[in-house]
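Project outcomes to date are best conveyed with an example. Our students and postdoctoral researchers have been running inverse folding experiments weekly, and each run begins with a structure described purely in tokens. The record below, which covers 257 residues, was selected by the lab manager from last quarter's runs and is presented without edits.
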């Protein structure tokens, strides 16, 4: 009995000593402005660069890479993928655009200015989305793991397990680098995870419930929130969804205490 009490006391002391990770805060949003968005664009990837949006779209036979005017939503430049490929996420690196495909384990590298294909590369498993910092490229594949790619060879050189508390966050989709964090759409939800790339921990959530009524779309089950772009120069955050008629500039609203 004495030994059991001693063990219980020790266990209790350990439990007190162990840090408890607080629940990640949930941010709301405020719409700053709404811009037109092409309803034929099944958005898979999005980024902002030098005054334009660059967007990749999916669906076999409909997959594209596009340069888009923000204010009008007009497509000013476009590259169509061969019909057999389902296009996925894109990222810019130097004077190139890198694009994934969904299940073909094949990626494309284009010239940023002309959209001409320059080379291909391979990777195992599925390709969903990409973003970057100044040194590396990050890739999602629909799991809770983000791959780290060498920016020149595009080979995998590491990985990040994304967790909320002690639970892996599955279905990580479209990615964007924002102020040292990786923002990630979680597929089939109205939430964006704010991920610490050093630890993989979710530092916060952005709840975009009510941003757009997807029941008005022809295929609300699939035409979900997906697409994040950040204008670092002017601190503007943009979000949209697959075949949505609008792209929204939003600002975050901190959680109430």
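After processing, the design step wrote out the following sequence:
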């Amino acid at each position: 009995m004495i030994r059991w009490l001693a063990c219980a006391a020790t266990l209790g002391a350990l439990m007190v000593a162990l840090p408890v990770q607080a629940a990640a805060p949930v941010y709301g949003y405020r719409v700053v402005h709404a811009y037109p968005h092409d309803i034929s664009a099944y958005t898979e990837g999005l980024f902002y660069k030098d005054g334009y949006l660059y967007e990749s779209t999916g669906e076999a036979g409909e997959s594209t890479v596009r340069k888009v005017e923000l204010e009008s939503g007009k497509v000013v430049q476009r590259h169509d993928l061969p019909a057999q490929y389902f296009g996925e996420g894109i990222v810019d690196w130097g004077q190139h655009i890198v694009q994934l495909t969904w299940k073909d384990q094949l990626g494309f590298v284009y010239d940023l200015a002309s959209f001409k294909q320059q080379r291909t590369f391979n990777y195992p498993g599925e390709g969903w989305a990409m973003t970057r910092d100044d040194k590396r490229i990050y890739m999602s594949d629909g799991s809770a793991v983000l791959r780290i790619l060498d920016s020149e060879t595009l080979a995998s050189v590491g990985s990040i397990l994304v967790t909320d508390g002690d639970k892996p966050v599955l279905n990580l989709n479209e990615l964007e680098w924002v102020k040292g964090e990786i923002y990630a759409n979680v597929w089939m939800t109205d939430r964006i995870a704010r991920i610490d790339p050093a630890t993989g921990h979710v530092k916060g959530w952005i709840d975009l419930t009510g941003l757009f009524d997807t029941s008005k779309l022809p295929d609300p089950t699939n035409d979900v929130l997906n697409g994040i772009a950040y204008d670092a120069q002017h601190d503007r955050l943009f979000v949209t969804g697959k075949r949505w008629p609008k792209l929204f500039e939003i600002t975050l609203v901190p959680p109430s205490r």
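The chain is about 5% helix and 50% strand. Residues 2-17 form the longest helix (16 residues). The training component of this project remains on track.
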